[in-house]
Structure formats: C-alpha cells, structure tokens
Amino acid sequence: MDRLLDNLNEPQRQAVTHTDGAMLILAGAGSGKTRAITYRVAHLIAGGVAPWHVLAITFTNKAAREMASRVEALNVPSGAMLCTFHSLCARLLREFADRAGIKPNYTIYDRDDQVRLTKEAIAQAGVPVANFPPAKVHASIGRAKNRLRTPAAFTEQARTYHDEQVAKVYVEYQKLLVANNALDFDDLLLRMAFMLRDYSDIGQLLSERYRYVMIDEYQDTNHAQYLLARAIAKPHGNLCVTGDPDQSIYAWRGADISNILEFEKDYPDAKVVVLDENYRSTRAILKGASSLIAYNHHRKEKALWTRRTGGSDITVVYCNNEHAEAQWIAQRIAALRSEGLAAEQMAVFYRVNSLSRVVENALRENAIPYRIARGVEFYNRKEVKDVLAYLKVIVNPVDDISCLRIINNPARGIGATTVKRLVEHSRMTGMSILEICPSALAAGLKAPAAKKVAAFADLIGSLAAGKDQPVRDIINHAIDAIGLKDALGGDDAPDTSAWRNVGELVNNAAEFDSRSGGGTLEEYLHQVALIADVDHMEGGDGAVTLMTLHSAKGLEFPAIFIVGWEDGLLPFHRGDQTRVRQLTPTPQDEEERRLAFVGMTRAMEHLALTCARKRMRRGRTETQIASPFLEEIGTEMVTVEDVTTAPEPRDAPSASGGGFYDDVHDRQMIEDESFPPEYEHLRIGSMVNHPTFGRGRVVSRGSQRWPETRLNIHFEDLGPKTIKLSHARLELLEE
DNA sequence: TGATAGGTGTTTTTT
DNA sequence: ACACCTATCA
Fold first, then answer.
1. Which of A5, A28, A52, A707 is most deeply buried (CB count within 10 A of its CB)?
2. What per-residue confidence (pLDDT) applies to A472?
C-alpha cells in the first residue's frame, strides 16, 4: 500500500490519506482525479475499513465501472459500493419501499416514456399542447423535482400563466406515475430525499452502513443529490467530494454549482486539496484554456500547470464557410494520420449536433472512418424496448404505458378503436388496462375484440407465472410466446439487425444472471433503465470520434478539433430575446465559457479551433461573428491560420487594429445609406462608450444591415458582449 | 394499417 | 435544411 502512495504527487497523497471528516478535492482538468479517488477507496480498504462501508457515487455507470476495475487492479478486497446516484436510490427504494410509500416492483420510466406520460398528462390537464410541448414541460417538471417541489408546492408558487399550466400538468403527471406504479429518474432522487427527511432512522442506518462517502463530479450535483449526500454523511461527517467548478456544464439541467463553491461553508472543518498539476495537455493547450476560463467571475481561482515542455501551438483557423471548415479538418486529420496518429486518437467536437453533418460529409469524402457518439443506441432500439416492455408488464401489471406499447405489438389484431375503448374504460374505472382485458366484454367491447384482448391477458399471465426464473429464460420464453421471430422477418430474421439486437439483449440478460447471482427480474429492469448509452461508448475502433462538447466531458484525445467558434454558436444563444437579455452578464455566459474550456482541456497534443465566416443555419446562410472566446484564449502559443479567400475590398481598411480578420475583413461599417450618420466613423477596432457597460472596443460585426446590425464589443469592465447597434446609444471615442 | 403531405420547431441531455 | 409530428386518405 505504501508503494501505492509513491505513485501520487503530494496533493494527491493528501487526498488519499486524509480519510476522516469532510474533504473537498478541487481537481482541475487532467490532474489525475480518478487516480486519486480510486487510490483513496483502495487506501481506506487496505487500512482496515470493510469494503461495504465505502460508498463512492459517480454520475455515470461507465465511471462507476471504471472505478471498480481500477480499484480491483490495486488488489484490495472487493465489495465497495460504487454506483450512480440513481442506482443507489433505486436500490434503496426497493429495500425501503414500504417506508417510501411505493411498491418494490415499480417501473422506472425512461426518457421516452416520461415524455409520453407528460403528453398524456397535458391532455388530461386540458392544457393546450400546441403551446406546451411535452418535452419542454417535462423539463420544467424535472427542474421542480430536482428542487424537491411537489405538485402542491409548485402549484402554490406558480405565478405566471406558464407556470400555472405546467403546474396543472405536473399534478396530472404525478398522478399518472402513481397509477402506473412508476417512477421517473427525478423521482428516484426526490423520493429518497423525502424519505431521509421524514425518517431519521433510515439516515442513521445508512450512515452506519456507508461510513465513508465519496462523490465524484460534485459540481454537477443538483439540490436533491446535495441533500442525499448530506443526509447519509451527517452522523459521521466522512464526506469526500471531488469536482471542478470550471467544468460545471449542466446548470441547465438543475445542477447547482454553488454546491461545490460553498462546500466549505457547509462543512467548515473541511480539508481542501487542490489538484492543479495537469498530466494531460501540452503547455500551449493549458495556456489557452486557462486564459479563457480566467474571464469567468464566479469561480475559485485555480491555475493549471504542467511540467511538460514542447508541443505545438493551438491552431485557430478562419474559414469561408462550414464546408471549408470541414474540409480543413478532414485534411488535417489525414495529415496527422500519415504522421502516425491513429484515427481513434482524434475527435471533433461541436456545440450542437446539427454541426456534425458537414463534418461527416467531409470525412466520408476523404475516406476517413468516423463514428458519432450518439445519445441513444442499444436500449432505445424499438425491438429491444418492446421486449423490455413485456418484462415490465410481467413485473408491474399496472404499467399501462408499457402495456399499451405491446398490446398489439407484434400485431394481434387489436386495433386503435379497441385500444381507445380500453383506455376510456380504464380512465372511468381506475382499473389498469391489463386488469380490464380478461373481462373486456363488460367494458363494452364487441365479442371478437374482447376475445383477442383476453388472449393477450392470458399471454401475459402465462409469462408472469415464470417470472422467478433466470432473466435470460424469461426473455427467451417471452420471445417464443409472442412470436417475435416471425414478426421480425421469420426465416429472414437472423439477417436483420433487429433480431441481432434481440439476441444481444438475451446475452445481456444472461450476463446479468451470472453477475448478480440470481438477481430478480425487477432488479434487472431497474438496472437496464438506468443505463445510458454513453455507457456503451468505447473507443479504439479505428475511427475518429464526433461528439458534442457536453458528451466530451471526462474524455481525452491526442488531437481535437472544435468547430463553430462563432458568436451565437459558442457561446450559444438563440433568438433575439436572449440577445437582448445578453446585454447583462448571465450565468449562462459563464457556463458556455466553461463548456469551451472543457472541450479544450480534453486535448493532449493537438488542438485546433475553427471559425467560419458564413454558415448555413436553419436553411439560411448567415454571416458569423467570430466567437469572443477566441480573443480570450490569448495570442501566446496560438497560431492563426486564415484560409479565407478575401472578398472584394469595399474600402481601404482603417489603420486601427484589433479585428479578427485583419487581413481580409473590410472594416468599414457603412454599407448602405440607411446607416445613421452618427456612426459614420465607427470601425472594427474603434473605442466606444456605452451608457450602461462603459468603455469597450469593437471587435467584430454581424452582416445584418441596419437596423439589425450587431456588434461584438469587448468592454473593459465586463468583457465581450454582443449588442444591437440600433438599440445602443454608443459614443465614439477618440483614441 | 400504412403511407404521405403539410405544419412546426428547431442546445446541450451524466440518469 | 431538416426532422418530427399530426392529420388524412387509400
């Protein structure tokens, strides 16, 4: 064990050896955080703590698995509880189901089902669906749940029309969940938090069970998770959290960055360890990223450093349009490959998924293999979800969402009208769909329909009879009984990807059976429901990875390209309303900067940031303003590569400096007569005074003609802002 | 039951 | 530009 400590630097060693009491590990990007926390788990166990007294919570199953395998490699007894917040809650809610006021065989609805249920709730609440898209409403409900607002509390606090409508939906949505004996992701946290609030003995019990609590990515915890951690760790106070406020990029989903920023207030005796030596990136990459993130005001000062020397500059590339941008990247990737870098060592990041298409095309044209890290893959496949729906209904017969999914799937002649009758009857009587099925005649169905419906109920009943068998057997039995093979193409089925996916699901279940040593079907379903598809993402398949900046968190690549460094894309904003609001600094601005920071710090050796002057967005070609972030990266160890072809010059460039397109951009502002005369002398590079924001320098402008003209101005006090020229009363200053 | 035309809304998505 | 939903018809 002592030899283990030799592999750590001084702050890492402190993080590992300080075992009792509260501790905050501020772990910068690439600072060996995972190493520190896995060693810490191993150190605790090697020091005599029973493994089952150690609880380490991560945000993804992948991270939990990785931690497990790295702890295992350190040769200490296994058995530590390494899991996600959600899987911990799912497990505890099964264990303490009666105290939580639920049944242990509850179904966990995935995102799809949650949105579908929201849609249903919108209908039942009589809210105009046209103005309240289910996904959006669901997000609002989710945020409320993260802050532990019950439907009643939310209703009471609703002030605006929008909130009132959402409140109505929330009430119905929650009723539907209860009726279906189902929980959504947020419920897992919320119910657990409520249970701990209401029953102090459970907190006590858990605290005795989990004597050392560790939480990774603490900057991304929401309020419910914060309370959970607090409740479990309260009696003994052994709470070790790790994270990096500079990498908090999920505030929009309810993550509360103040959890980590104010940890020391919550736990005044906390030891704070800062890991700021970076082992990942070259000096140039660190320098640029650090320079950028320093523009954030709400942060803990922390300067990454490295012992490394050498390496190439960050490359900033200006292109004419997105096609040129993609082409440049493809060629650069080809060049790096010929220098010996493998495709899987490279990645392209973008702010929004829509930017991937052009890059894909360019890669394909250049015969460069790539893969896209999609959000959804295996468990979202229709055929997989269908089979799982059968299992869900077997376990939880009142799960109408799943029941309706499969009642005529594979087709068994139960038409839309029949289903509609069943649903109506269910609503009237409060019975579940499956409950109605055996006596459907009484529900007003015609004899032929009633017969088919009853046969469906029989089918489910016969499957349910075997639900204590190994999961693999249950699934195989179900596949046979429902005739899935025929439905997927009969003898041709083995050639279809659908049938192969089903086969994969069976393998998967078999693996669960052996790994869990006789785990129940409901355990299996809960586990499957909490698997996200990033968990499946594996590298090393000889392809360049394409993904959003968000999904890049936690990864690293020797060479990285980040596209779309343009105002409006990175930082992202949409619509004119947000632009107006942008005039005051918002927390979102800082989050966008963190997102750019996260992307940059994924790079080990090569980093290129690209910017297009024109880009097609939503079917329109728009002239783009360079991202203000590009300036914030600084100029040291940055090489600018301008591959734009100069447009025909309109006027002689002015002498003042500071623009992005120094060589190619026409700095003249006036391009038509309607432009107001007071701005006649305004140029890129001009110093101006803004009545609210003070002095600043014009950095770039958008293409739109007056009065839509927008300027990007770097204010001396407030940093970069985009303002609408016709709205601002700018005063032109002499230099 | 399926196919298709029109209307709409377009960030990110660890679970 | 494009995907996705809904309504409508064969």
1. A28
2. 94
